[in-house]
Structures are given as C-alpha cells and as structure tokens.
Target: LysR family transcriptional regulator
Amino acid sequence: MDTRRLAAFIKVVDVGSVTRAASLLHVAQPALSQQMVALEAEFGRALLTRSPRGVTATPAGRILYHHAHVILKQEAEARRGVAHPELLVSGEVSIGLAPFSTATLLSIPLLCRVRENFPGVILHIRDYFGTVLSELVMNGVLQMAVLYGRGPIRGLVFEPIADEEWYVVGAAHFFASQDGPMTLEDVAGADLLLPSRNSFLRNRVEEAWRQAGFIPHVAAEIESLHTLGAALVAGIGISILPLSVASELKQMYAIDFMPIEKPNMVAPLSLCIREDAVSTPASTAVLDALRSEIASLRERCPGLHPHLPRKSV
Model:
C-alpha cells in the first residue's frame, strides 16, 4: 500500500475538492485524480462521491479515512523510532482542547510534562474553532480531546472532568451598578460577542437566552481571545466565558466579570477518546500525562465543580 496515496486521499477528503487538494499538494490535478482511481481499484470500492460541488467520502471512504490517519501516524512513529532508537517512547500524538474553555489551560503544563519526560514525543494541539472535536477523535485525526459534553456517542468514551461555571464578561464600567451576581434579565438586552454558531459555547448561550424568554442579540462573532478582549474594552458588547478564561483575560485587558444566577450557567467538560483506539507507547504516555494534568487542574482552577448544580442551563 502506497502511504503517499493515503496522505493524498486524506487531503482530498479534508478540502472536498481534488483540484484544491492538488494545488495544496503541489501536484497536477490529473495525476491526483489517477491516484484516487488507483486507490479505489486497490480496495475494489468507491471511496469518493464526485459531484459538480466537489467530492465527499463514501461510507467505505470514511472508514479508510480513519485507518489512513492511523497508518500514517504509525509510519511516522516507526521512522522516528528507527532514527532515534535511544528514545524508548517516541512518536506524534494529536490532542484537541475546546477553545475558549478551561481545557486550554492544560496546554502549557502538558507540553512541559511531555517535554521533560518524553522528549521523543511531538504533541499536536488543536484549540481553535471550526471543527467538531468529537468527530476528529472518531475519525482518528485526534487521539484524545478535552471537550464540552458527556456523550453518549457510539464508538467514543467520555470521562467526566468537571462542570465549568460561566460568567458575564465586559468592560469594567458595565458592572458599575452591580454589587452581586447577575441574572439573565440583567444582561438580556446587551450586545453579545460570541464565537460562530457551530460552537458549543454559542449554542449554549443562545439556548439559555431563549429558555429565559429573551432573544439574544449577537453583535459580532469573534474567535480570537485577544480580539475579544479588545472589543470588550471598547464597549462593543459583553461575552460569556468560563471563570478561568475570564481571569486570564483580565490580566491583559481592563475588563471585569461577574457570576450569573437564576439560572446558573455551567457546562460539562470531558476527556474523550475512541473506544477502539489503537494505543501506542507515545499515546499511552500522553494520555497518562493528560489525566494527571486534569487532576491538577481540578485542584487549582476556580470555577470547576464536580457536580452539576440543580438549577442549570
């Protein structure tokens, strides 16, 4: 099996276009098309559905997409192990962290721990919007993820971490007349600065507004924490963030935050892995390190609770 064809197949599925994939891979479009035809001939099944709008993976193609990621990771680990036999644990491990969540606070401690104990392991950390982390774990793109939700999703295992408390965040003057926790009624008419619609945070906030009988007004969709901080200081609107993230943002910008009650706004964080994941020494070492850092995070991080409050959204 030609692993270069597998890598090209992954790129075609990711971008949904043979022409665009050829451009990204710096190969001629006819040559890439021939590779895809050869791959389908090798497996004896159609792997791609072709249409004027682009290409998508067939059911058989989705299965190959998952295995292709695993095969390419194993090939990379084999090459690295042969090149550096002195490193007992080596390889690449991909992790997802829910953006704008307490999970992002795991990145630096985890990098330091892995760097110190397993210098032969290279971490790939994804903490940006635009992707569904559980789908990436299911497809084998990620080997593990700390994300919102508890499942269940067939084929995935969710290990509950904690319930994350969310706060109202805004310019300091926004809270001038407040001397205690806020209600949704207090902020229902404010302009909101939130991530795009496909994010858990955005969906949960809009759901809370609607359940309370209000119509949310999103003034801007922002997916950069630094841009969000600057927009809050400028008074463009308010946002809803976990206490830990709000605290980090306050160290950089003149903002403030306050808890929400009636109802409390919380969201469950979980560690997600594939049920039938193929473990490697590197992924096992990183998973153990991640679990240790999660335990440490629970102890040091405000706004994380072991149980969901009775009244919650």
